[in-house]
Every structure is written in structure tokens, then in C-alpha cells.
Amino acid sequence: KPILSIVLGAAYLSITKNYIRSRILNATYGIEIDKSMESARESNVSDHHIEQYKYQNGKTWFVEKCFGIYARKKETITSGQIIEKTYSRVPIDAKRIKIKIFYSVVSDPTVTTTAEHLANL
Questions:
Q1: Once rounded to an integer, what is the mean pLDDT over residues 19-48?
Q2: How far apart are CA 116 and CA 93, in angstroms?
Q3: Judging by DSSP bridges, how do beta strands 76-78 and 116-120 pair with one another?
Q4: pLDDT tens digits, 50-98
Q5: How many whole angstroms separate alpha carbon 15 and alpha carbon 59?
Q6: Contact 66, 32 (CB under 8 A)
Q7: What DSSP designation does 73 have?
Q8: Is 110 left (phi over 0), alpha (psi -120 to 50) or beta?
Q9: Long-range contacts of 85-94 (CB under 8 A, 24+ apart)
Q10: What is the C-alpha to C-alpha distance for residues 70 and 68, in angstroms, rounded to an integer?
Q11: What's the pLDDT score for residue 101?
């Protein structure tokens, strides 16, 4: 009796706190970051992307539009789980920043130019 199963499931969902305890991600989620050129190469960012999006800040070369992964496709995330990462501002004296959130159907994306933009913070 499929209809009864749906009704029972809906009832449990509405009255049971934390009925859904975890979910398996169907995409990789992260933010757009700038990486040092060395870090971008270590992360397998393509030479083409590096050439197109590189810039110099002081003596250091950086690459824009890199993907900073928070959670990967097929990972299990529990309800209420908090994922924290620490990044530095470039330039360090910036007063304001905009954080761009992206997702990708690829498990290990390296750049945001091939990902989908979700939101800004």
C-alpha cells in the first residue's frame, strides 16, 4: 500500500525531531578562493586556467577562481554537522570580502569556472 507508506512517512517526519539524521551528497560543495600559483599547481589546476587567472600581489603570484572544497560528492553529512575551514584574505588588509558558494557534480573540482554558482555571502 504505497499511499499508506507515504502518509506514515510524512507523519513521522512532521512529529519526529531529527527524523533525517544524515544525507549522502550528490554534488561537491565549496567556495571560490585564490590560491598561490604553487598551491594551484599542486591541486592540479590546469596550466590554461593558471595563465588566464593569475595575478601578482607583492612578490607572490596567485590564481583566481579556484574551488575550495568543503564537502565532496558521495560524502555522508549528518544533521547539524558543522564544517569549518580557514582562509586568508588577499590582500590581507581588505576591509570587506564576498564569499561565493559553488557546487559541482564532479567529486574533486579544481576551479569554479566549471562549477555552478549557488549564492554569495
A1: 95
A2: 29
A3: unpaired
A4: 999 999 998 999 999 999 999 999 999 998 899 999 988 767 788 888 9
A5: 59
A6: yes
A7: T
A8: alpha
A9: 87/31, 87/33, 90/34, 90/57, 90/62, 91/57
A10: 7
A11: 98
